[in-house]
Amino acid sequence: MAFLKTLALTIIGALRALILWMRTNPIEAQISFVVLLALIGRLQLSDDTADVADGRIILAGDALAINTLENTFESYGYNLDNVRNQRQPVPRLIAADVPDGLKDMRVIERRKSLFFRTVLPMILIVNESIASKRSLLLELQAITRSETFEESDLDDDGTIWLIDMAKQYGIDMDAEDVTLQDAVDVLTLRVAPIPTSLAMAQAVEESAWGTSRFAREGNALFGQWVWSEDAGIVPEDQREGQAYAVRAFDSPLQSVLGYAKNLNTHWAYTSFREQRAALLDANEALDGWALAETLTRYSERGENYVKSLRAIMRVNNLRPLDNAELASPETMVQLAEAR
């Protein structure tokens, strides 16, 4: 009986830990699901249909063939001009891999349209998750800034969540004199969405419209370096004396998540976070064009890199997409059932 009681308590504890992790890391849980579906899709003989999960429709296998993907977007009425001009909600259509056929598309405007429509929902979904966490952080910040606040005022779930978030966003809670109040204040700077137009322009610049070797082989949309060749794809023209690789991902959604985490935590992008915070504090909309100027450290090209990003934004009319919103999960379920 003692063994059974111990086993039962262990199982209950594990389930509670899993539920807490899923609550505090919804986008990571979704990514795991996307990867699983992608693997299943590759084992199926035919994969023309989409899988529906919490309103997000995962496109994998044959569903990522260029013509099929375009037809899927059209069947949902997904058109960037409508998103820009009519504020049409963006369907939650998630590609499990960067479509390999992009490199073979000879009509440039067709390739651009397909790439943008593929990447946009992922950026919005990552931002949605970040915004949800930020909303809770702001509530906690209001509590911690109270004159009578004591750390014991937070319940166990709130404290565990904050400590986990601090760990995720590079805050050392073991450092001397670091309090929960300090952690909340730093987290509100770091946990915030990335302007959509900026993310899309960088995806273009860093992945060559999804045609680069790193994008095709490693779902790498943002050219993030890692200093272990085992963790990514080694460039063919690697600089002499530098052992680095371009980080590979199991899915492009994971790449977007890694990119957002990079901008939100790396010391090189402190200015980005500070200027973004100023906009948010003033209740102004995030402006990818303005914030691009803070990313001179993202590339060795410095100011020329910023100019390139702004040229991509201007030529492709990306700035209106900073206002783009996702279709609701309920709407996606209805659309999927109607097809």
Give an account of the 3D structure:
The protein is mainly alpha-helical and 339 residues long. Among the domains are: 128-190, no CATH class; 196-323, Lysozyme (Orthogonal Bundle), CATH 1.10.530. The protein has 14 helices and 6 strands. Strands 1-2-3 form a 3-stranded mixed β-sheet, sandwiched between helices. Helix 5 runs antiparallel to helix 7, helix 6 (156-168) packs across helix 7 and helix 8 crosses helix 13. The longest helix has 37 residues, at 108-144. The protein starts with a helix and ends with a helix. 36% of the residues are buried.
User: Biggest β-sheet, characterized?
Assistant: 3 strands, mixed
The parts where pLDDT drops under 50 for at least 5 residues are 1-14, 27-53
Number of strands: 6
> In angstroms, what separates the terminal alpha carbons?
54 Å
Rg, Cα atoms, Å: 21 Å
Helix fraction? 55-70%
Question: What is the spatial order of strands in the main beta sheet?
Answer: 1-2-3
Q: Which outline best applies?
A: globular
Just give the CATH class of the domain at 196-323. Mainly Alpha
- Share in β-strands: 5-15%
CATH architecture of the domain at 196-323: Orthogonal Bundle
Query: What is the H-and-E element order?
Result: HHEEHHEHHHHHEEEHHHHH
What is the tally of helical segments? 14
